[in-house]
From TrEMBL:
This is tRNA pseudouridine synthase. It is an enzyme of class 5 (isomerase). CDD domains: PseudoU_synth_EcTruA (cd02570). GO terms for molecular function: RNA binding; tRNA pseudouridine(38-40) synthase activity. It comes from Olea europaea subsp. europaea. One of its GO terms (biological process) is tRNA pseudouridine synthesis. Keywords: Isomerase, tRNA processing. The keyword Transcription does not apply. Pfam families: PseudoU_synth_1. Its EC number is 5.4.99.12.
Amino acid sequence: MNTAPAPASATGIPSVLPSAPVEYPCLPISSYNCSNLTGDREDNDTKKLKPSTYKWRLVIAYDGTRFSGWQYQQSTPTVQCIVEEALTRITKLERKDLLLVGAGRTDAGVHAWGQVAHFITPFNYDNLKGVHKALNGLLPSDIRVREISSTVPEFHARFSVKSKIYHYKIYNDTIMDPFHRNYAYHSIYKLNVATMRDAARHFVGKHDFSAFANTSRNDRVPNPVKNIFHFNVNEMGPLVQLEVEGSGFLYRQVRNMVALLLQVGREAVPPDIVPRILGSRDRKELAKYSLSVPPHGLCLLVVKYNEEHLGLPPGGPETSFGRNHSISKCKLPSF
Protein backbone atom coordinates (compact mmCIF):
# COMPACT_ATOMS: atom_id res chain seq x y z
CA MET A 1 0.00 0.00 0.00
CA ASN A 2 0.97 3.60 -0.27
CA THR A 3 0.91 4.07 3.48
CA ALA A 4 2.72 2.23 6.23
CA PRO A 5 0.86 -0.69 7.80
CA ALA A 6 -1.18 0.11 10.86
CA PRO A 7 -0.69 -1.87 14.09
CA ALA A 8 -2.37 -5.24 14.21
CA SER A 9 -5.68 -5.56 16.00
CA ALA A 10 -6.65 -8.25 18.47
CA THR A 11 -7.42 -10.60 15.59
CA GLY A 12 -3.86 -10.29 14.29
CA ILE A 13 -4.94 -8.70 11.00
CA PRO A 14 -3.47 -5.26 10.28
CA SER A 15 -5.95 -2.50 9.60
CA VAL A 16 -4.01 -1.64 6.45
CA LEU A 17 -2.74 -4.64 4.53
CA PRO A 18 0.98 -4.59 3.68
CA SER A 19 2.25 -5.45 0.24
CA ALA A 20 4.16 -8.47 1.56
CA PRO A 21 2.09 -11.67 1.78
CA VAL A 22 0.54 -12.44 5.14
CA GLU A 23 -0.70 -15.87 6.20
CA TYR A 24 -4.31 -16.02 7.43
CA PRO A 25 -6.04 -19.19 8.59
CA CYS A 26 -9.01 -20.36 6.55
CA LEU A 27 -12.14 -20.15 8.71
CA PRO A 28 -14.80 -22.89 8.75
CA ILE A 29 -18.18 -21.81 7.39
CA SER A 30 -19.75 -22.15 10.86
CA SER A 31 -17.55 -19.29 12.08
CA TYR A 32 -19.11 -16.83 9.62
CA ASN A 33 -22.07 -14.93 11.04
CA CYS A 34 -23.80 -12.47 8.75
CA SER A 35 -25.63 -10.91 11.68
CA ASN A 36 -22.26 -9.68 12.98
CA LEU A 37 -21.77 -7.49 9.93
CA THR A 38 -22.60 -3.96 10.94
CA GLY A 39 -23.96 -1.26 8.72
CA ASP A 40 -26.99 -0.34 6.65
CA ARG A 41 -28.97 -3.33 5.34
CA GLU A 42 -30.18 -1.45 2.27
CA ASP A 43 -29.27 -2.72 -1.19
CA ASN A 44 -25.72 -1.70 -2.14
CA ASP A 45 -26.52 -1.60 -5.88
CA THR A 46 -27.74 1.99 -6.11
CA LYS A 47 -25.68 3.72 -3.43
CA LYS A 48 -23.47 6.57 -4.63
CA LEU A 49 -19.73 6.61 -4.06
CA LYS A 50 -18.14 9.11 -1.76
CA PRO A 51 -15.36 11.28 -3.18
CA SER A 52 -11.75 10.06 -2.86
CA THR A 53 -12.62 6.36 -2.95
CA TYR A 54 -10.99 3.50 -4.83
CA LYS A 55 -12.97 0.77 -6.58
CA TRP A 56 -11.89 -2.87 -6.90
CA ARG A 57 -13.20 -5.63 -9.15
CA LEU A 58 -13.32 -9.30 -8.08
CA VAL A 59 -13.87 -12.38 -10.25
CA ILE A 60 -15.21 -15.09 -7.96
CA ALA A 61 -15.80 -18.83 -8.38
CA TYR A 62 -17.89 -20.82 -5.94
CA ASP A 63 -19.57 -24.15 -5.42
CA GLY A 64 -23.07 -23.08 -4.44
CA THR A 65 -24.06 -26.37 -2.79
CA ARG A 66 -23.83 -25.12 0.81
CA PHE A 67 -24.97 -21.54 0.27
CA SER A 68 -28.33 -19.80 0.11
CA GLY A 69 -27.37 -18.01 -3.08
CA TRP A 70 -25.22 -14.92 -3.64
CA GLN A 71 -27.28 -12.13 -2.11
CA TYR A 72 -26.77 -11.07 1.50
CA GLN A 73 -29.16 -12.58 4.05
CA GLN A 74 -28.78 -12.00 7.76
CA SER A 75 -29.99 -15.39 8.94
CA THR A 76 -28.30 -17.83 6.56
CA PRO A 77 -24.87 -18.09 4.90
CA THR A 78 -24.62 -16.62 1.42
CA VAL A 79 -21.62 -16.04 -0.80
CA GLN A 80 -21.89 -12.25 -0.52
CA CYS A 81 -22.06 -12.49 3.27
CA ILE A 82 -18.92 -14.62 3.50
CA VAL A 83 -16.93 -12.50 1.02
CA GLU A 84 -17.97 -9.38 2.94
CA GLU A 85 -16.89 -10.98 6.22
CA ALA A 86 -13.44 -11.69 4.77
CA LEU A 87 -13.16 -8.16 3.34
CA THR A 88 -14.14 -6.55 6.65
CA ARG A 89 -11.44 -8.54 8.44
CA ILE A 90 -8.80 -7.48 5.94
CA THR A 91 -9.75 -3.84 5.36
CA LYS A 92 -11.20 -3.07 8.82
CA LEU A 93 -14.12 -1.40 7.04
CA GLU A 94 -17.79 -1.96 7.78
CA ARG A 95 -20.23 -3.45 5.31
CA LYS A 96 -21.83 -0.08 4.60
CA ASP A 97 -18.42 1.30 3.62
CA LEU A 98 -17.38 -1.60 1.37
CA LEU A 99 -20.56 -1.45 -0.75
CA LEU A 100 -19.95 -4.92 -2.21
CA VAL A 101 -22.13 -5.52 -5.29
CA GLY A 102 -22.37 -8.68 -7.43
CA ALA A 103 -23.18 -8.95 -11.12
CA GLY A 104 -25.83 -11.62 -10.61
CA ARG A 105 -27.94 -12.79 -7.69
CA THR A 106 -27.53 -16.53 -8.12
CA ASP A 107 -30.08 -18.69 -6.28
CA ALA A 108 -29.41 -21.21 -3.53
CA GLY A 109 -27.47 -24.15 -4.93
CA VAL A 110 -26.40 -22.38 -8.13
CA HIS A 111 -22.67 -22.35 -8.89
CA ALA A 112 -20.43 -19.72 -10.49
CA TRP A 113 -17.11 -19.74 -12.30
CA GLY A 114 -17.15 -16.08 -13.30
CA GLN A 115 -19.25 -14.10 -10.83
CA VAL A 116 -18.06 -10.49 -10.81
CA ALA A 117 -18.31 -8.10 -7.86
CA HIS A 118 -16.91 -4.73 -6.87
CA PHE A 119 -16.19 -3.01 -3.57
CA ILE A 120 -14.68 0.30 -2.54
CA THR A 121 -12.09 1.50 -0.04
CA PRO A 122 -11.01 4.97 1.11
CA PHE A 123 -7.36 3.97 0.57
CA ASN A 124 -5.32 2.68 -2.37
CA TYR A 125 -3.20 -0.44 -2.76
CA ASP A 126 0.07 -0.46 -4.66
CA ASN A 127 0.14 -4.26 -4.88
CA LEU A 128 -2.86 -6.61 -4.95
CA LYS A 129 -1.12 -9.96 -4.56
CA GLY A 130 -1.09 -9.75 -0.78
CA VAL A 131 -4.78 -8.81 -0.67
CA HIS A 132 -5.58 -11.63 -3.06
CA LYS A 133 -3.74 -14.21 -0.98
CA ALA A 134 -5.30 -12.91 2.24
CA LEU A 135 -8.83 -13.13 0.82
CA ASN A 136 -8.45 -16.71 -0.34
CA GLY A 137 -6.76 -17.53 2.96
CA LEU A 138 -9.84 -16.44 4.88
CA LEU A 139 -12.51 -17.79 2.52
CA PRO A 140 -13.73 -21.39 2.78
CA SER A 141 -12.41 -23.76 0.12
CA ASP A 142 -15.67 -23.67 -1.91
CA ILE A 143 -15.27 -19.92 -2.60
CA ARG A 144 -12.25 -18.59 -4.46
CA VAL A 145 -11.35 -15.14 -5.73
CA ARG A 146 -9.82 -15.87 -9.13
CA GLU A 147 -8.87 -12.31 -9.96
CA ILE A 148 -8.70 -8.89 -8.30
CA SER A 149 -8.05 -5.59 -10.06
CA SER A 150 -8.49 -1.87 -9.67
CA THR A 151 -11.17 -0.38 -11.87
CA VAL A 152 -12.43 2.94 -13.17
CA PRO A 153 -15.10 4.78 -11.15
CA GLU A 154 -17.67 4.26 -13.95
CA PHE A 155 -17.52 0.48 -13.62
CA HIS A 156 -20.46 -1.16 -11.85
CA ALA A 157 -20.53 -4.94 -11.44
CA ARG A 158 -24.29 -5.11 -12.06
CA PHE A 159 -25.30 -2.09 -14.13
CA SER A 160 -22.31 -2.18 -16.53
CA VAL A 161 -23.03 -5.75 -17.65
CA LYS A 162 -23.19 -6.27 -21.41
CA SER A 163 -24.13 -9.96 -21.29
CA LYS A 164 -23.97 -13.10 -19.15
CA ILE A 165 -23.30 -16.72 -20.10
CA TYR A 166 -24.86 -19.58 -18.14
CA HIS A 167 -24.31 -23.32 -18.42
CA TYR A 168 -26.85 -25.93 -17.41
CA LYS A 169 -25.61 -29.53 -17.31
CA ILE A 170 -27.77 -32.64 -17.68
CA TYR A 171 -26.43 -36.13 -17.07
CA ASN A 172 -28.41 -38.31 -19.48
CA ASP A 173 -27.92 -41.95 -18.50
CA THR A 174 -29.69 -44.61 -16.50
CA ILE A 175 -27.16 -44.40 -13.65
CA MET A 176 -25.92 -41.08 -12.31
CA ASP A 177 -22.17 -40.51 -12.22
CA PRO A 178 -21.49 -39.69 -8.54
CA PHE A 179 -18.79 -37.21 -9.56
CA HIS A 180 -21.44 -35.11 -11.37
CA ARG A 181 -24.17 -35.37 -8.72
CA ASN A 182 -23.67 -31.83 -7.38
CA TYR A 183 -23.21 -30.18 -10.78
CA ALA A 184 -25.61 -31.85 -13.22
CA TYR A 185 -29.30 -32.73 -13.32
CA HIS A 186 -29.94 -36.46 -13.78
CA SER A 187 -32.34 -37.35 -16.58
CA ILE A 188 -33.02 -41.07 -16.98
CA TYR A 189 -35.14 -40.43 -20.09
CA LYS A 190 -33.15 -40.66 -23.31
CA LEU A 191 -33.11 -37.12 -24.72
CA ASN A 192 -33.42 -36.22 -28.39
CA VAL A 193 -30.68 -33.59 -28.49
CA ALA A 194 -31.41 -32.61 -32.12
CA THR A 195 -34.97 -31.55 -31.30
CA MET A 196 -33.70 -29.68 -28.23
CA ARG A 197 -31.39 -27.70 -30.53
CA ASP A 198 -34.31 -26.90 -32.82
CA ALA A 199 -36.37 -25.65 -29.88
CA ALA A 200 -33.48 -23.64 -28.39
CA ARG A 201 -33.18 -21.61 -31.62
CA HIS A 202 -36.62 -20.13 -30.95
CA PHE A 203 -35.26 -18.43 -27.82
CA VAL A 204 -32.56 -16.55 -29.77
CA GLY A 205 -33.31 -12.88 -30.42
CA LYS A 206 -35.22 -10.19 -28.56
CA HIS A 207 -38.36 -11.45 -26.86
CA ASP A 208 -40.70 -10.77 -23.97
CA PHE A 209 -39.83 -13.57 -21.50
CA SER A 210 -42.70 -12.97 -19.06
CA ALA A 211 -43.87 -16.56 -19.52
CA PHE A 212 -40.48 -17.87 -18.36
CA ALA A 213 -40.08 -15.70 -15.24
CA ASN A 214 -41.05 -16.54 -11.69
CA THR A 215 -42.27 -13.80 -9.42
CA SER A 216 -39.64 -12.44 -7.05
CA ARG A 217 -40.18 -10.05 -4.18
CA ASN A 218 -36.77 -8.53 -4.99
CA ASP A 219 -37.68 -7.61 -8.54
CA ARG A 220 -38.04 -3.88 -9.19
CA VAL A 221 -40.60 -4.35 -12.00
CA PRO A 222 -37.88 -5.59 -14.40
CA ASN A 223 -38.12 -5.16 -18.14
CA PRO A 224 -39.31 -8.57 -19.43
CA VAL A 225 -37.76 -7.99 -22.87
CA LYS A 226 -34.35 -9.66 -23.07
CA ASN A 227 -31.99 -10.36 -25.96
CA ILE A 228 -30.66 -13.92 -26.25
CA PHE A 229 -27.48 -13.97 -28.36
CA HIS A 230 -27.03 -17.73 -28.56
CA PHE A 231 -28.46 -20.90 -27.05
CA ASN A 232 -26.34 -23.98 -27.75
CA VAL A 233 -27.07 -27.59 -26.85
CA ASN A 234 -23.89 -29.67 -26.79
CA GLU A 235 -23.71 -33.43 -26.29
CA MET A 236 -20.55 -34.85 -24.72
CA GLY A 237 -21.16 -38.53 -24.10
CA PRO A 238 -23.84 -38.82 -21.39
CA LEU A 239 -23.42 -35.14 -20.51
CA VAL A 240 -25.68 -32.62 -22.26
CA GLN A 241 -24.54 -29.03 -21.73
CA LEU A 242 -26.83 -26.11 -22.50
CA GLU A 243 -25.10 -22.75 -22.94
CA VAL A 244 -27.09 -19.54 -23.16
CA GLU A 245 -25.83 -15.98 -23.51
CA GLY A 246 -28.15 -13.03 -23.06
CA SER A 247 -28.25 -9.33 -22.27
CA GLY A 248 -29.89 -10.24 -18.98
CA PHE A 249 -32.22 -12.78 -17.44
CA LEU A 250 -35.37 -12.63 -15.37
CA TYR A 251 -35.76 -14.52 -12.10
CA ARG A 252 -35.52 -18.29 -12.80
CA GLN A 253 -35.66 -17.63 -16.56
CA VAL A 254 -32.73 -19.90 -17.47
CA ARG A 255 -33.99 -22.84 -15.40
CA ASN A 256 -37.50 -22.47 -16.84
CA MET A 257 -36.16 -22.44 -20.40
CA VAL A 258 -34.10 -25.55 -19.67
CA ALA A 259 -37.15 -27.29 -18.16
CA LEU A 260 -39.13 -26.80 -21.37
CA LEU A 261 -36.20 -27.99 -23.50
CA LEU A 262 -36.09 -31.15 -21.39
CA GLN A 263 -39.72 -31.81 -22.25
CA VAL A 264 -38.88 -31.28 -25.92
CA GLY A 265 -35.92 -33.66 -25.59
CA ARG A 266 -38.19 -36.29 -24.05
CA GLU A 267 -40.47 -35.76 -27.08
CA ALA A 268 -43.37 -34.89 -24.80
CA VAL A 269 -43.91 -31.60 -26.67
CA PRO A 270 -42.78 -30.38 -30.14
CA PRO A 271 -40.04 -27.75 -30.65
CA ASP A 272 -42.55 -25.15 -31.89
CA ILE A 273 -44.08 -25.03 -28.41
CA VAL A 274 -41.41 -22.41 -27.55
CA PRO A 275 -42.75 -19.52 -29.70
CA ARG A 276 -46.30 -20.33 -28.62
CA ILE A 277 -45.43 -20.01 -24.93
CA LEU A 278 -43.28 -16.92 -25.56
CA GLY A 279 -46.20 -15.27 -27.34
CA SER A 280 -48.58 -15.97 -24.46
CA ARG A 281 -46.45 -13.89 -22.02
CA ASP A 282 -48.16 -15.94 -19.31
CA ARG A 283 -46.25 -18.00 -16.73
CA LYS A 284 -49.31 -20.22 -16.29
CA GLU A 285 -49.03 -21.31 -19.92
CA LEU A 286 -45.53 -22.68 -19.32
CA ALA A 287 -46.74 -24.47 -16.17
CA LYS A 288 -49.06 -26.59 -18.34
CA TYR A 289 -46.05 -28.27 -19.96
CA SER A 290 -43.10 -28.19 -17.56
CA LEU A 291 -41.91 -27.54 -14.05
CA SER A 292 -38.62 -25.85 -13.14
CA VAL A 293 -35.39 -27.84 -12.94
CA PRO A 294 -33.23 -27.95 -9.77
CA PRO A 295 -30.53 -25.31 -9.25
CA HIS A 296 -27.42 -27.50 -8.95
CA GLY A 297 -27.06 -27.98 -12.73
CA LEU A 298 -26.76 -24.22 -13.30
CA CYS A 299 -23.51 -22.25 -13.34
CA LEU A 300 -22.83 -18.57 -14.04
CA LEU A 301 -19.89 -18.98 -16.38
CA VAL A 302 -18.94 -15.51 -17.68
CA VAL A 303 -20.04 -11.91 -17.19
CA LYS A 304 -19.10 -9.63 -20.09
CA TYR A 305 -18.51 -5.87 -20.01
CA ASN A 306 -17.56 -3.17 -22.48
CA GLU A 307 -13.80 -2.78 -22.79
CA GLU A 308 -13.85 0.82 -21.52
CA HIS A 309 -15.22 -0.41 -18.20
CA LEU A 310 -12.41 -2.94 -17.78
CA GLY A 311 -9.46 -0.58 -18.16
CA LEU A 312 -7.16 0.05 -15.22
CA PRO A 313 -7.20 3.58 -13.79
CA PRO A 314 -4.00 5.62 -14.11
CA GLY A 315 -1.52 4.77 -11.37
CA GLY A 316 -3.43 1.71 -10.23
CA PRO A 317 -1.74 -1.56 -9.26
CA GLU A 318 -1.44 -4.50 -11.62
CA THR A 319 -4.22 -7.06 -11.74
CA SER A 320 -3.61 -10.09 -9.52
CA PHE A 321 -4.39 -13.56 -10.90
CA GLY A 322 -2.91 -15.29 -7.90
CA ARG A 323 0.63 -16.31 -7.19
CA ASN A 324 2.41 -19.41 -8.40
CA HIS A 325 4.75 -21.07 -5.92
CA SER A 326 8.02 -22.68 -6.91
CA ILE A 327 10.52 -24.84 -5.09
CA SER A 328 14.14 -23.78 -5.11
CA LYS A 329 16.51 -26.33 -6.53
CA CYS A 330 18.80 -27.89 -3.96
CA LYS A 331 22.51 -27.82 -4.60
CA LEU A 332 23.85 -31.33 -4.36
CA PRO A 333 27.27 -31.69 -2.82
CA SER A 334 30.00 -32.76 -5.21
CA PHE A 335 32.10 -35.76 -4.24
